[in-house]
Automatic annotation (TrEMBL):
It is found in: Cell envelope. It comes from Evansella tamaricis. Residues 35-320 form the Periplasmic binding protein domain. Keywords: Signal. It holds the Pfam family Peripla_BP_4. It comes from the Bacteria. Residues 1-22 form the signal peptide. This is Sugar-binding protein.
């Protein structure tokens, strides 16, 4: 009798300890979240697209993930990272709202031993970033600039410059790429800058410093906000005389701002034609391109970026070292990076690149 009690109590202890261990291991995987994903805002189709592509890619994966949006606020972003840390994530994939302000959020993650992957936008001025997955952003800007060159005729073509938010490192890369091809064409009189005295003052410089670009961005930033883009375009067209209208070229940094700017230029009776750039291949802009209201977009295949980011995350979870193709200086360290190419889309190839490739469905558009 005594003996059997002993056996039962030992069994009870073993059962209790194994229950405790099971509970702990559940907790360690943070109610199951191994990869946390933080995106900048739901207010732009670009990032909703990324969310969808992450969901598509993860639908039959064994890894548990959670996606949170920061709604254009660095404070909310930090809160999101903390929420994910509390759930026990091992890898953080993050596209920062503000590249420098995100430093403290990723430093908190690093302290917990989490691997940090910057997604599309670099996090700057911190050593708490392990990897960066990105498109070739200089090539995006260069493609936009080259498109304006290829589609403008004659000389003294008024050139309207617009840029992204200064808090986003990409805004500088896009502008740098565009300037590298446009500057020689400004210097040789093909284009005349219409809306930035700072850019005019620098028009003989082939390469601009970050500070010089900041001065130009200070005048022509859209802050990635279509409303701000619209207001600026209206102000610019009101300020100029007829000699800066007629057939014009417009460097618009992305699709959301391109549509807003294009709508303003389209309603000015002294603007006879405009060529306007974009990027992201947002559905609304694809329709604008089909309708001849936006001239081009730079297609960045988000499926590839998602695949690269998740591939890296899985490598890390499996204890392997992710493959990279280069590095980006973030002002503090060289961040190992994997970079993806981009594709220029205009009316002539919109169907082959975006529909035939299976990126979008034909019935999402009219007049294809
Ligand atoms: C992204 C663009 C996007 C822009 C505004 C950039 O960092 O690379 O694709 O249009 O932010 O959200």
């Amino acid at each position: 009798m005594r003996k059997s009690w002993k056996v039962i109590s030992v069994l009870l202890v073993v059962a209790f300890v194994s229950m405790m261990l099971a509970a702990c291991s559940n907790d360690a995987s943070g109610s199951g979240v191994s990869v946390g994903i933080v995106l900048p805002t739901k207010d732009e189709p670009r990032w909703v697209q990324d969310e969808q592509r992450f969901k598509d890619a993860l639908s039959d994966s064994d890894y548990t993930t959670e996606i949170l949006f920061s709604q254009g606020s660095s404070a909310k972003e930090k809160e999101n990272v903390e929420t994910l840390l509390n759930k026990g994530i091992e890898v953080l994939i993050i596209a920062p709202h503000d590249g420098a302000a995100a430093g403290s959020a990723v430093e908190a993650a690093k302290k917990e031993g989490v691997t940090v992957i910057a997604y599309d936008r670099l996090i700057t001025e911190t050593d708490a970033v392990d990897y960066y997955v990105t498109f070739d952003s200089i090539a995006v800007g260069a493609a936009q600039g080259q498109f304006l060159i290829n589609n403008s005729e004659g000389s003294n073509v008024p050139l309207y410059l617009y840029a992204g938010a200064s808090s986003d490192n990409n805004a500088f890369l896009f502008f740098e790429g565009a300037w590298s091809v446009l500057q020689p064409k400004i210097a040789d009189g093909t284009f005349v800058i219409a809306n930035s005295s700072e850019a005019e003052a620098l028009q003989d410089k082939a390469e601009l410093t970050r500070d010089e670009m900041s001065r130009i961005l200070g005048q022509v930033t859209t802050n990635w906000d279509p409303n701000e883009a619209k207001n600026k375009a209206q102000t610019h067209l009101t300020a100029v005389g007829g000699e800066l209208k007629g057939d014009v070229a417009i460097l618009a940094p992305n699709d959301g701002t391109a549509r807003a700017i294009a709508d303003v230029f389209a309603t000015d009776s002294e603007v006879t034609s405009y060529v306007v750039t974009g990027q992201d291949a947002e559905k609304a802009s694809v329709q604008y391109i089909i309708d001849g209201k936006q001239s081009m977009t730079v297609f960045k295949d988000v499926r590839t970026l998602v695949k690269d980011a998740m591939g890296m995350a899985i490598d890390v979870l499996d204890g392997n070292t992710p493959a990279t193709t280069g590095a980006y200086d973030n002002g503090s360290i060289e961040v190992k990076a994997k970079q993806t190419d981009v594709i220029v889309v205009e009316q002539t190839n919109v169907k082959s690149e975006l529909i035939d490739s299976g990126y979008y469905e034909a019935d999402e558009f009219t007049g294809l």
